[in-house]
Design a protein that fits this description.
The complex is a heterotrimer. Chain B is an all-alpha fold. Helix content of chain B is 74%, strand content 2%. Chain C folds into three domains: 2-240, 3-Layer(aba) Sandwich (Rossmann fold); 245-336 and 424-518, P-loop containing nucleotide triphosphate hydrolases (Rossmann fold); 349-421, no CATH class.
Chain lengths: 318, 389, 518
């Protein structure tokens, strides 16, 4: 136990929390903005899978991580707009659209990976890990001055630039929601779409913007997964982060700062799981920890919410 | 709208959704097919499509096409677990609960049944029944977690059940690694199931046993009938459906909404677990799954195709199994990756669930019906007036 | 002369996707600078017509001409750009935003990429002064009174350049004083050349403020009139198609034992408004007790408490001596209480289920309808066929989807269920709202019949004629309290009722206490 603790109180451990939290934070911001606009996007998981795949593939083909990164963003946005088309134009239940995107994101990405690599490399590959070298990954940044501070330097410096961007985006998203007219419109559409429509705000447009934003964030998250967190794409690599983000959104009270704290909590849980397995615990027992934490925190959040509600509309059984 | 018009509408809509999915598939096959120029690729696409559409039942070769009984048996066998998960999702979705736990449920049921099949010798005949029931029960109990959290604390059953899938998978892997694995084997697998626990083949016919088409198929069909009776001919199924349509109405009518919601998910859990168990005991000698089996996701598609009506589940399951077989055939004979099914499935799913897909067509039918009714009413009034006058 | 019209709607038809024909061949026009009343009962198609003028709905067929130009109003923004503004009955405001933010929503002033909040407040203040409509720019909309919300709504439209204002039942939520203030403001706007559509069914208001009026009934226009040329009686006859006096045939009530006993109910809602303030009354076997009042004075909350849909802060309610407070709908129903809910689409039916499935919802577990683990389908068919016949539900078969029926037939399905389960007490909340004359008459007759057979009936209705003539005795609710009790409704006048309903008068506690028959 002492061994574990000394293992945990290292800069590397806190460094890993930030690193692990970053993709969850992106997805959480996506979840927050669509929720403010009045709906839920449960397809974040699938969106991240698509972005991760195409990001790594294009990084490889163009020999430029930056182009790969941009492609990941574009793919995220395009796929989310497709979701929007089905959800808003064809009025498919947004939850079902999300399920469909996740289905495609799981097997469909593998199909595309095989087809694309088969056509270009001459043999179908089940992952892109063999293609991505560290030079094709998103670069890490060491921050001058800070990197030399003991402990803190080890925690804060040397992250992928997408990690820093994630926390910056947390701030920017909050500003966007509360200080800009776009944010005003998003909140109005989410709270009372009729009110927004009655003053000529296009509810449809705002919803598209919100879902495109969630696609953009998923793009960041996906690019991070395949070009920084891991070197290359592999099947189901997002491993439920898109779903964890939905929980983080709820636990953070739907606000950016709260969402960030929740993401960090999940980052912490996962980092701890990794530490556990490093001291000999079966990784299969450590891996489910973040998922279990999600359920437990949702339940705790549920209790708190119930206490806060001044007058719950009582009804039998609910 | 009249019933007949509604039926026609549903039919046109379903077929068009499938057609669109096939067009998408065709496009993907085209880009993935081999060939140096468009003409060659087109030819290859044609070959692959033939495999996809006809291959599941017929052998295609230079001599022409011939029916393959083995392939049909394969499809029927593949329907068994997905019929169960399809039924499970039907019942959970009917209560408007987006519980996506059938995936983990199938794995948990399979594993639980495997434990009984290996370690608890029972008489032949009784053994598989006990194992399957146990698998179903364990899963049903685990499904209490999302169900109760939803009802008591309003925790999203969707997120919760998704998390549960991962937890189930990892814990089973942990248990396998540490307790149940047969260490003498190279891969991680349990000791073999006792012979008494195996579910018998439908017949000793070589085609049937090669396809591993077991009595599970008959049980699945019986389950379909029972589920239909439950949903459409019993007060509990009725309440599940009413809650799904309008929960406020159900509450106002005096139904125990919370209890019924929990019940629907218990049943869903049981069915998915039992499906996994039947699959395991019928088609495998040992438990060796190291990942989620995918039956739960297919079950969701099946439930959507079936419109949450258990009676349509076997047809949807057949369709999905046929499609899967077609994709497998393409993978074998035309080198198209088998995961094409996930994309095709997603597209069909999207269009099937789209409210406004063909809405204009629907609206025109509605308007037509309304106008007819108005005309009819006017005619009646006129008659009534004359009669009175 | 066509030019004098700012708006002409010609031969407008609207069929909703559920098959309801809300407008049939409606003609409607507005002259520049007039206040034009649009009248009609609930469900007559007024709102649908105005939603089309404001671009929220599209006509199935017909033409809309604005300022002499044929126009397609494909969305509210198009309508706004044509100078049309609408103040909805349910305010189109975002509660968590401030008044100023609501005001500039969709046209927020900017400083760089940020909203210029100071400018937004300035705009609000400026316009409030210009049009003489006082509002508090920095307060959250959730925290301001109803009257101010309405002013925010009117200002919102004016700020966006509206020259034609549609006001959907603007006085429904206002106090008498606020209404007076509103009228002054509207007259001011009229003098400045604004055209106003005023939707209402309050005859006095129409007479006071409007120049012309269009009356609608059952989705059709009943004609356009100069307000000064038509009498109130004419208007009401055109609106409801016959004299408002219903002449309900009923014998004198012979009430016996007390069934429902309510004492001192208190309830503060989530916005801290006291909705029930010491409500006490009794309903006896064999009588219809009516509750009149302007909507929003606690009637809804009272029904919620009586049907366990909510829990009061204090007070008791008993049916035949047993408490029915917060015991759940199942037990309330077991105690013999039936409810015809105000919102039938929300509570009354499962729209995509069949008629049959809807009439058994409260008794699906009963012995009569089950045999063993399964339904006794024969008994269920018999029951539903019997009810369809008895309640003259117009349908093809009991397997037809309820949501596809007309409003009146849907309501018949609801009352068929609620009246047929041997109730001791029927709570009828707006039982005939928005349904056709035939169904209305049927349901009213049925209520009288049931009360005379010894059932206690509590009738809540915003329809004054209905509540006055159907009830044996009557209470008036105002501001969460009982303002008056009338043991006998036959001698009551509309004027008297109005004074109590609007809170101008209140009976003494002793007079009110007579409704408790201890």
């Amino acid at each position: 136990m002492a061994n574990l603790l000394s293992n945990m109180l290292t800069p590397e451990f806190f460094f890993s929390i930030l690193r692990i939290s970053a993709p969850i934070l992106y997805a959480t911001l996506a979840a927050i903005v669509v929720e403010k606009a009045g709906f839920a996007n449960i397809g974040l998981e699938g969106l991240m899978m698509f972005s991760a795949l195409f990001g790594s593939l294009f990084s490889y083909y163009t020999k430029s991580w930056f182009i790969g990164f941009l492609v990941a963003l574009v793919v995220g946005v395009l796929m989310s707009l497709l979701m929007g088309f089905f959800a808003f134009q064809l009025e498919t239940d947004i939850i079902l659209v999300g399920i469909a995107i996740n289905m495609m994101g799981s097997g469909g990405t593998l199909f595309l990976c095989k087809v694309i690599t088969d056509n270009t490399e001459g043999k179908a590959m089940a992952s892109t890990t063999g293609l991505i070298t560290s030079s094709l990954c998103i670069p890490n940044i060491s921050i001058p001055v800070i990197k030399d501070i003991p402990f803190i330097g080890g925690v804060l410096s040397g992250h992928s630039f997408l990690t820093y961007l994630a926390f910056l985006f947390c701030f920017l998203t909050s500003v966007m929601l509360y200080r800009t007219s776009l944010g005003l419109n998003i909140r109005a559409v989410g709270e009372n779409p009729n009110a927004a429509a009655s003053v000529g705000v296009s509810v449809l447009k705002i919803k598209y913007i919100a879902i495109a934003f969630s696609g953009l964030m998923s793009g960041f998250g996906g690019a991070f997964m395949s070009m920084s967190y891991a070197q290359g794409w592999s099947q189901d690599m997002v491993a439920g982060r898109g779903f964890i983000a939905l929980a983080a959104q709820a636990m953070g009270g739907g606000e950016c700062f709260g969402g960030m704290l929740s993401s960090l909590l999940f980052g912490f849980a996962q980092a701890m799981g990794i530490k556990f397995s490093s001291v000999g615990l079966d990784s299969n027992l450590a891996s489910p920890i973040p998922y279990a934490i999600t359920i437990i925190s949702l339940a705790v959040f549920g209790v708190i919410r119930q206490r806060q509600a001044k007058k719950p509309r009582t009804a039998e059984g609910t | 709208m009249t019933k007949k018009r509604q039926l026609i509408f549903s039919l046109v809509r379903g077929l068009l959704a499938i057609f669109i999915a096939l067009v998408v598939a065709m496009f993907l096959i085209f880009i993935s097919s081999e060939g140096d120029n468009a003409a060659e690729k087109l030819a290859a696409t044609g070959e692959a499509l033939k495999q996809l559409l006809v291959g599941p039942l017929f052998r295609l070769n230079a001599a022409g096409i011939s029916f393959e009984g083995k392939r049909l048996a394969d499809i029927l066998a593949a329907m068994i677990p997905t019929t169960f998960t399809g039924l499970a999702v039907c019942i959970m979705f009917a209560a408007n609960q987006f519980n996506l736990g059938a995936e983990g449920g199938a794995m948990l049921g399979a594993f639980s049944a495997a434990v009984i099949a290996i370690y608890y010798p029972l008489p032949k005949g009784v053994h598989p029944i006990v194992a399957v029931l146990f698998g179903g029960l364990v899963t049903a109990i685990v499904m209490l977690i999302p169900a109760l959290l939803k009802v008591k604390l309003d925790v999203s059953e969707m997120v919760c059940s998704l998390m549960l899938n991962y937890i189930i998978m990892y814990i089973i892997k942990y248990l396998m690694n540490n307790y149940y694995a047969d260490k003498s084997k190279g891969q991680i697998q349990t000791y073999p199931f006792l012979n008494s626990s195996k579910i018998a083949m439908l017949s000793s016919d070589s085609v049937i046993s090669a396809a591993k088409l077991t009595w599970g198929f008959v049980i699945a069909i019986i389950a379909v009938v029972i589920c239909w009776l439950f949903m459409y001919r019993s007060r509990f199924g009725y309440q599940i459906r009413m809650i799904g349509i309008n929960q406020d109405f159900a509450k106002y009518s005096g139904m125990k909404v919370g209890f019924i919601i929990v019940l629907s998910q218990l049943i869903g859990g049981f069915l998915s677990g039992a499906g996994g168990a039947i699959e395991m005991l019928g088609r495998y000698p040992t438990f060796s799954w190291s990942a989620l089996p995918g039956y739960g996701w297919t079950g969701i598609t099946i439930a959507i195709l079936a419109g949450n009506n258990p009676l349509f589940v076997p047809f949807a399951a057949f369709f999905m199994a046929y499609l899967q077989k077609g994709c497998d055939m393409m993978a074998t004979y035309a080198n198209v990756p088998t995961q094409l099914i996930d994309i095709v499935q997603g597209v069909i799913f999207l269009f099937f669930a789209a409210e406004r897909f063909l809405a204009k067509y629907r609206q025109s039918l509605v308007v037509k019906t309304a106008q007819e009714e108005i005309a009819q009413k006017a005619a009646q009034n006129k008659e009534g007036g004359q009669a009175n006058g | 002369m066509a030019e004098e019209y700012v708006v002409q709607m010609k031969n407008i038809n609207k069929v909703y996707s559920n098959g309801v024909a809300a407008n049939q061949g409606v003609d409607f026009n507005l002259k520049r600078g007039e206040i034009h009343a649009l009248m009609g009962e609930n469900g007559a198609g007024k709102s649908t017509l105005m939603k089309m003028l404001f671009g929220m709905e599209q006509p199935t067929s017909g033409e809309i001409i604005i300022n002499g130009e044929s126009t397609v109003l494909s969305s509210p923004s198009v309508a706004i750009s044509k100078g049309i503004g609408m103040v909805h009955q349910h305010f189109m405001l975002v509660p968590s935003l401030s008044v100023a933010e609501n005001m500039v929503l969709g046209m927020a002033p900017r400083k760089g990429i940020f909203i210029d909040k100071a400018k937004a407040i300035e705009i609000t203040k400026e316009n409030a002064e210009k049009y003489n409509l006082h509002v508090e720019p920095e307060m959250r909309v959730a925290d301001i009174p109803v009257g101010m919300k309405q002013k925010v709504e009117i200002l919102k439209a004016l700020v966006r350049g509206a020259k034609i204002l549609i006001l959907d039942e603007p006085t429904a939520v206002l106090t008498a004083q606020e209404t007076e203030e509103l009228f002054k403001e509207l007259k001011g706007l009229k003098e400045e050349g604004y055209t106003i559509v005023f939707i209402s069914h309050k005859l006095n208001e129409i007479k006071e403020i409007t120049d012309r009026l269009t009356i609608m009934r059952n989705g059709r226009s009943m004609g356009v009139y100069e307000t000064k040329d038509v009498s109130k009686e004419d208007i009401s006859r055109l609106m409801v198609g016959r004299d408002v006096v219903l002449n309900v045939q009923k014998d004198k009530a012979k009430p016996t034992d007390t069934v429902l006993k309510v004492r001192n109910l208190e309830y503060v809602n989530e916005w801290n408004k006291k909705m029930l303030n010491g409500i006490s009354f009794d309903v006896r076997k064999g009588e219809i007790l009516g509750i009149a009042g302007v909507e929003g004075n606690g009637q809804k909350e009272l029904i919620d408490m009586l049907f366990s849909l909510d829990t009061p802060d204090s007070g008791t309610a008993e049916v035949n001596g047993k408490s029915i407070i917060s015991i759940g709908q199942k037990k309330v129903r077991d105690a013999g209480v039936s409810l015809v809910p105000e919102d039938r689409m929300l509570y009354g039916i499962a729209g995509t289920a069949s008629i049959e499935e809807n009439v058994i919802s409260d008794r699906a577990g009963s012995k009569e309808l089950n045999s063993g683990p399964l339904f006794n389908m024969k008994a269920i068919h018999e029951l539903s066929d019997k009810l369809i016949k008895e309640y003259t539900v117009l349908c093809k078969s009991s397997a037809q989807q309820v949501g596809m029926l007309s409003g009146g037939n849907i309501q018949k399905v609801v009352v068929a269920r609620e009246f047929s389960n041997d109730p001791v007490l029927i709570l009828a909340d707006q039982p005939t709202r928005g349904i056709d004359v035939g169904a209305t008459e049927f349901i009213r007759k049925k209520l009288v019949e049931l009360s005379r057979s010894g059932i206690a009936v509590l009738l809540v209705s915003a329809d004054l004629a209905e509540v006055m003539e159907l009830s044996d005795s009557l209470i008036v609710m105002h501001d969460g309290k009982i303002a008056a009790y009338f043991e006998d409704t036959t001698t009551l006048t509309d004027e008297e009722m109005g004074e109590y309903m609007l809170g101008l008068k209140e009976q003494t506690p002793e007079e009110i206490r007579r409704v408790c028959h201890d």
